[in-house]
Amino acid sequence: MKPTSQDGSPSTDLMDELARLTAENAELRLINRDAFNYIRNKTNQLLNTMGTKSLRPEELEDWSLLELDPIGIVTQSFQRVLENLRETNERLQLAHQEVKAVFEAVGSAVLVLDPKMQIISYNERVRELLLNDGGSVTGAMCQNVLCRSEEAVQNCVHRKVMASGRPESAANFEANGRFFDVIGQPIHDSLGRVTHVVLAYNDVTEHNRIQTDLKSALKEVSRAKMQIDTLLRSMSDGLVATDNKRRIVLMNQAAEELLGICLRDSLGVPLLDVISHPELRAHLEAVAQGETHVLRDLEFVMADGNVRIYHARTSALSGATVADQGRITLLHDVTREREVERVKDEFLSTAAHQLRTPLASVIGYSDLLIQADDIGVDARLEYLSLIHSKAEQLSEIVSNLLDISRIEAGEGVALTCQSYSAAEICEEAISGFMHGPSGHQFELDLNPTDIRVFVDHFAVMQVLENLLSNAMKYSPRGGRIVVSTRMLNGVCDISVRDDGIGMTDEQAAQAFEKFYRADASNTAIAGTGLGLTIVRHLVEAHGGRVAIDSQVGKGTTIHCTFPLADAV
Amino acid sequence: MMTAPEETVLDIRGQVCPSSLLTTLKVLNQNAESLRRGSIRVRVLTDSRDAVVTIPNAALNMGFKAQVEKLPEGHYEVVISHEAD
């Protein structure tokens, strides 16, 4: 309803008031529009900052905009964003401190380079290990500070990382007389570009030295092992080693064959579980009980049926304590030694008998000469001749013993060789036996042409006298003994043949062995068992060989070879 | 033992950016502490392609985690949760 005057028309005052209000209203509308535009603009500014579009007027009309309070919303969100940034910064700062601590604490020298190889930062270890002077190198170019050699430039890890964009490495970079393994790690930006390269230099000088020493030691150990293996393989003695639990850890081939055990199958197995030989078991058990220096002679039946004697000795391997100690058992073949001992005992018995018989004669006849006053001149001469003969016999025995003793002691045989006629030597040798009481017939069977030999006269005579003496002892009285000379394959073969009792093959095989006598029980035949051994030594000292050809009941021929004079 | 967070579903399908962003921000502001503690998560359903970029970006800037998945029904699901969830 419009205000009216008394005549029904609007009064002037009212009209004025209306006009004023209308104008005021229009002004307010303008202010409102400006205010909303301001709010809308600020809201859009904030929304654009948030990365989204501006509000379209038709999307949210003015009063709804006011009611939604976008500025309040976005401001509150910004508070949260700032808070998040602050927390993120704190975490980054902490992480930075941690990285810095690691950077300095790490044992490697660490360099951070930009893509152009300029040094951005580095830790203290760089100064200690890589740099000579104390000045700062931040901002310097890496190649001017570190990689001065062409080789180092060629193997530049920075260059490799920049090319591949991936971690790279290089070995044995040399600087300041030390060696380093270098690892390069790229740092990428959000677009994947390499912005920095971190180079870590790990000092491997000591490691390399240790590795070289280790290789050398391993080589030495390997060589020693090979030597030990060769030694073990070549050992004729059986060897078994056990650990502190008495389990087999080592065994050589000789032990495998002797015990019938294969190392491959028995490695780590307790030794007593695989040993069946009762005496060896008893030996090992005695050692296990703590008996020390237990030595035993054990008999083993070999594959060929022969019995051999082994000497078993077990000793401790070094260890920190007795409980830690392994043991090593050696089985040494003493068959030969035992046989020699037996023969020697037999010889001593025989020699004693041989010495005693002539000694008894010497003592008997000399007693007679001392005590009897009524001995005639002829009888006295006969007794003295007998004493002389027995003394010569004793002398021969002693002489042989001394010869063999000297040879065995390693003094060898000293020869003074000259050229001699073999025929003349043989004739000379038999001449001393030709008219003996035994009545043996001596014959010479000489080579059609005389042979000149290069020998020691005394030694060859000793050889022939021994052979002739043996031929006489082992052939019947009046028997035929033939001394022959022959040219044979560039040497002179001198042989002595008899028609005596001969020998079996087994006896012949041992005839040249020391103290061996073919028939030791026959004490009627004087001898020491040394004659043929001396013969062998003397012939071999000339570079010759001895051989025996014998048949039981038919006789024996002994051949000796000597060098020709014109061959020397 | 960790308990599963409650879920607040904000269905703003039909709204376009930036009003969808403003609506989401308003909810995030209201639940900021609970989100920080990890006791709730906000699942926003929207069919605005712009919103699946602006909403996750804003959430990440505020220190939250956002995962976007397009559902078989044709609209998007933006799950906003605590960073450690």
Overview of this protein structure:
The complex is a heterodimer of chains A (568) and B (85). Chain A folds into five domains: 12-68; 106-203, Beta-Lactamase; 235-333, Beta-Lactamase (2-Layer Sandwich); 339-406, Helix Hairpins; 413-567, Histidine kinase-like ATPase, C-terminal domain (Heat Shock Protein 90, 2-Layer Sandwich), CATH 3.30.565. Chain A has helices at 12-49, 62-68, 70-105, 124-129, 142-145, 150-154, 157-164, 205-234, 253-259, 263-266, 271-274, 278-288, 335-371, 377-411, 422-431, 457-473, 505-510, 531-541; strands at 109-113, 119-122, 168-175, 178-188, 194-203, 238-242, 248-251, 295-301, 307-316, 327-333, 418-421, 441-445, 452-455, 480-488, 491-498, 546-551, 555-563. Chain A has 568 residues and is α+β, with helices and mostly antiparallel strands. In chain A, strands 2-1-5-4-3 form a five-stranded antiparallel beta sheet. In chain A, strands 7-6-10-9-8 form a five-stranded antiparallel beta sheet, sandwiched between helices. A five-stranded mixed beta sheet of chain A has the order 12-14-15-17-16. Chain A has 18 helices and 17 strands. With 85 residues, chain B is an alpha+beta fold. Chain B has one domain: Translation Initiation Factor IF3. Helix content of chain B is 34%, strand content 32%. Chain B contains three helices and four strands, in the order βααβαββ. Chain B has a four-stranded mixed beta sheet. The radius of gyration of chain B is 12 Å and the shape is globular. The two termini of chain B are 14 Å apart. The mean pLDDT of chain B is 88. Chain A binds chain B through residues 47, 50-55, 59-60, 68, 70, 73-74, 76-77, 80-81, 83-84, 87-88, and chain B through 16-19, 21-22, 25-26, 28-29, 32, 50, 53-54, 57-58, 61-63.
